[in-house]
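Here we describe the complex-level prediction in full. Unlike the single-chain runs in Section 2.1, the two entities below were treated as one system.
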Amino acid sequence: MTAEHVEVPSELDRDLALTALDGLDHPGAELDATAAAVVDVRRFGAELPGGWSVGGGINGGFLLALVGRAVRRAVPDRPDPVTVAATYVGASVAGAAEVTTRVLRRGGLATVAAEVSQGGSLKLTALATFADLATNLTDEVATTAEPPVLPPVEECVGLAQAPDEVRRRAPLMDRFDLRLDPACAGWAAGRPSGVGELRGWLRLPDREPDTLSLLLACDAMPPVTFDLGRPGWAPTVQLTAHVRALPAPGWLRLRQLTRNVAGGFFEEDCEVWDSAGRLVAQARQLARVPRPQA
Amino acid sequence: MTAEHVEVPSELDRDLALTALDGLDHPGAELDATAAAVVDVRRFGAELPGGWSVGGGINGGFLLALVGRAVRRAVPDRPDPVTVAATYVGASVAGAAEVTTRVLRRGGLATVAAEVSQGGSLKLTALATFADLATNLTDEVATTAEPPVLPPVEECVGLAQAPDEVRRRAPLMDRFDLRLDPACAGWAAGRPSGVGELRGWLRLPDREPDTLSLLLACDAMPPVTFDLGRPGWAPTVQLTAHVRALPAPGWLRLRQLTRNVAGGFFEEDCEVWDSAGRLVAQARQLARVPRPQA
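The structure predicted for the assembly as a whole is:
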């Protein structure tokens, strides 16, 4: 007889837990008021953990992974995000939230709309394309992008070394292990490089990367504007993530950069590379430039 | 007395014409079946012109501009797209279409969901953020990206010089004036550069660029895979466009590139620069690599 196996959910799994509010056990078809199509609508309850907050709101990458978790429940045979495009309508706060999914199309690529609301107020709205990446991708890899060149993990700057006032504003820093290349961590000591690029290693404490946690990785770093000498919260307007491959176990390498700070907005491109050297996720967000601090 | 001024709509304006099917003159609030919020829902009729088709479907950039036109009607005091993220659910064809808009949030940045359907079948679903860019942008321009360096327009390759079989498959080529840098137009003569980048000039025949036509520009070029020696239609899965500034009159400069062809998909980044040297739009799409042709 083997010992009974008890599955211990990872910290992230607990944080991303969802409760089916309706429709899950009896998936009912509802007539969407706005389209001619009949769609499968589901509602989930979630508790947004304060540990994922930053600058007063819940981290955008966490919300993206939460949406991904709900979409996976809605189309379980298409478990992997291919694209998730989210508009951040308002800042989410720690506490109860509702996640709604609407399946707009089934097929090899499933299209699902999702919303996160709190107290009846819309916080995030997203469109997701999901697939089964284990069977949906061809073997070809003709990537010409180069992974970021990083010093070894132990020579990089952990967030535990961040100034206290940064850590107080960003409890999410304790949720994962992020090690920044010292060449682009000068901002933490008041000496930003001015280039507009952040590079580093990322690992979740008790979990190997999967396609949902890649969504988290796409918005895990500080705003790239820190490297431009512009500290402060940079609210995301919109973020689109592409998951391009099933990630290998081990540390992820991240590169985040901006090339167009203008008009009060900036784009932030994020690349996520796995330990096998594959470009496993690409994301771009549009965010507001932080206001000068008093 | 001055002569009466008769406004002659441009060809593009005629192509993007919308008919209010309901809700426009009497904007009624409907209770969205899927969210706790009351939203403003409008329906428009449109005729998708065959002249904008390519490879059997309607061009994705045209559909993006059509969605933009409808969203502008829904939030007329926020006339400019800031972000439009569209999922291409199925190929659209020439003929009647319905465009539905749902205003999810009003404010400095308005959030609007939009759908395009034909015969009750969903073709495109999108989330848009609109604003009044004339008043919403700060004066700061700290762009570090460099515009593409192009030979003069008259030394570039017009689409009229494309092979007949390409023109037959892509009537949209006659809808605008696109001149490719000869250095990345070798594919038209069977000699692709293999780099994965297209550069060129773009102008609409009877209209200066505005924020809606920038959406069109974000998907006006042939697929960048042509430059990799992979001819054929590359269906867009998802496209997100950011409009970053009001464009100056004159020719637009486009650069389109890919760095991650893998697993049967590729990302295509598009930059649109105006005649004043501003990076006025940035777009990224995920598309399927064309299948090898028989």
